[in-house]
Amino acid sequence: MDLESAKMLGAGLAAIGAGMAAIGVGNVFGSFLESALRNPGAADGQQGRLFIGFAAAELLGLLAFVVAMIILFV
User: How far is it, in rounded angstroms, from Cα 48 to Cα 64?
Assistant: First the structure.
């Protein structure tokens, strides 16, 4: 296997993290909506944790994208 094909394979594997971030964001919002429908009074107190979870999942997706671009172009 030459270097160029190894770079493409590595970038493809690193890009899987972007898809996993989408699953994570869906899980965060789905869990929030489920808990908000069960207990609407506590939904306002959980909104800060919702945005922290969203930001963490999205950060991991962006980090995976950056790693894939670094592997491809450096």
Answer: 25
Nearby residues of 20 by Cβ (< 8 Å), 6 or more positions away: 60, 61, 64
Q: Is this structure's pTM higher than 0.90?
A: no
Q: Please state the domain extents for the chain.
A: 3-15+26-73
CATH number of 3-15+26-73: 1.20.20
Q: What distance in Å separates the CA atoms of residue 58 and residue 23, rounded to the nearest whole number?
A: 10
Over residues 14-31, the pLDDT tens digits come to 889 888 999 999 999 999
Helix axes 43-73, 3-38, angle to 10 degrees: 180
Residue 4 in tokens: 């160029």
